[in-house]
Amino acid sequence: MTVSGPDLKAVLWDMDGTLLDSEKLWDVAMHELAAELGGVMSESTRHAIIGASGPDALAMIFGALELDPTPAALADAAAWMNGRVTELFSLGIPWRPGAREALRTVRASGLRTALVTNTERVLAEQALDTLGREHFDVTVCGDEVPRGKPEPDPYLRAAELLGIAPEHCLAVEDSPTGSAAAEAAGCAVLVVPCEVAVPVGPRRVHRESLEGIGESGFAAAWRTVHA
């Protein structure tokens, strides 16, 4: 069986928590940022932030800590966060189970591919040193679209750059935020949860891990949504 089939034409990959086990690094930075701001990051706030864009994440942190989200304060927090995550990424970013092999499988199949992340370009470029730029035809980052996930903008932009309608795309996601964005864009969604549970949905197929997915697994996920 071939992965591509007549209708599945592209696989759109989320990054943090899907391909790379980088949410744990973001977790370190988020907790440290909360301490820098004079507070403590609660578990509920951290879970709510997973998959969010930078501006949305900072807004949630400021709200949870009851801080005044002035433009200057948000800018300072964003600069601190980017600097700390850069440091953590430089120490090495681990892969999610099966992700490296899954990337290679899809690339070898002839399907078009995109990296679609809420992470800003400067950090995504650092992560691409681990992922390998050769695995993606296009990359879309959170600071390159009007609205980040959970809005559909990143996925719509990726489909536009590929020249492929969203209904012919399968997004691979780990979070409720990312899954909602892909679904709103019109993509089928292969959900591989990482840090938090992801609700079921009519356009979502759940899988515990990317390990052993093989070529047929991507086609099967797409067909299940479009059955």
TrEMBL record:
Pfam families: Hydrolase. Keywords: Carbohydrate metabolism, Magnesium, Metal-binding. InterPro entries: Beta-PGM-like (IPR051600), HAD-like_sf (IPR036412), HAD-SF_hydro_IA (IPR006439), HAD_sf (IPR023214), PGP-like_dom2 (IPR023198). It comes from the Bacteria. The keyword Transport does not apply. SUPFAM superfamilies: HAD-like. CDD domains: HAD_BPGM-like (cd07505). The keyword Cell division does not apply. Its cofactor is Mg(2+). Belongs to the HAD-like hydrolase superfamily. CbbY/CbbZ/Gph/YieH family. This is HAD family phosphatase.
